[in-house]
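Design review, sub-item: ligand-bound model
Attendees: FS, YL, KQ
YL presented the inputs for the calcium ion complex:
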Amino acid sequence: MTTRRSWIESANDPGTDFPIENLPFGVVERSDESEPRIAVAIGDRVLDLRECVSRGLLSGQRDEVRRALSSDSLNTLAGLGRQVSSTVRRAVTGLLDAGDDRLRTSSDRDHLVRPMSEIRSVMPFRIGDYTDFYASEHHATNVGSMFRPDNPLMPNWKHLPVGYHGRASSIVESGRPVRRPHGQTVGPDGPPPSYGPVRLLDYELEMGFFIGAGSELGSPVPIERALDHVFGLVLVNDWSARDVQKWEYQPLGPFNAKNFATTISPWVVTLDALEPFMVSGPPRATDDPRNLEYLRWGDDVAMDIELEVAIRSTQMRERGMPAHRVSLGNYRDMYWTIAQMVAHHTSTGCDLRPGDLMASGTVSGPTEDSRGCLLERTWRGERPISLPDGTERRFLQDGDEVVIRGWAERDGRRIGFGECTGLVLPALGG
Ligand code: CA
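KQ shared the predicted structure:
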């Protein structure tokens, strides 16, 4: 990997999530300007692309691209396709390069480049549709064996990437607190059910990806073109109410157990930035079925992205303690790839629109400490985990903050995702 340098010194720090090779896109609010604006993260700063356009610093871009960059969401820019976003990214890389003076010596520099601590990240896209998959064999096998010990992996599982259509309206940006929902549940003795604050609140560690270029209704996207429709990736926490899920999930799958909140990280890391971390395809056992042709692609790849979940309780926060790592996994362990998910999703002719979000499903690896949700990590609460404040967790408690981090790293360079955080608030009336 190159070690290109930026004139923004914090971007050259080996520990930063946002070196010049990353340049993830986001939407930010700044206190001195009225409209949200598209920006890229660079070290501990953000570069305001709307202001770059208005000051002529991106004059090499076509009119429609400059208009898209002046928008208050990434939908229009992403909808122009991967080639356009790659071109923009290259132009921005030029402005931030250590050898380039155009922005560095500009009198507007301090207006265009703002400290990250002075801006607020908001939702990067207006999300029209949200689909959640179930692509980890370890997760599907673990959860399946709890609910159906004799039949953990359903007969369809290795033939298609299982998913469900989720709820887009309740997807929130990192940092927004999440209220413990009420729901209908049954106790250990079975029905009749009762309604009240859920008891078994959980997180799910997932990778999400945003659709850039849309597709036509009626036209499946061939797998070898699938990544042309992907703008970039974010971290996802699919908050889940396990007691609601257990009672409601048959026969149609998750509903209220999943629709109250999904948190995403604010910076969308492009496929261009992740290219050096694409590794050979996902794991297959010799006796696994061969995929049908529409799910088969010789060049398909997995992605080598480390994923961490940490928890910080109220007491830990009060005592100034950092969030405590409870799991560490890797996205490359997933059975189904992004290209396969896109190909399968559109195989009926279902169309894609810019800003659709798809998520991978819980990322769990083969070991206990790489399990991406508490249901698996504590095995339904039978093996609680300890926090450094002396308490134990089976499921989330009010005041717990869940912090997800992700990064790809090689040769001292790190392409990071920042954080995806959410604090659990007590249920209403509780
Ligand atoms: Ca999920």
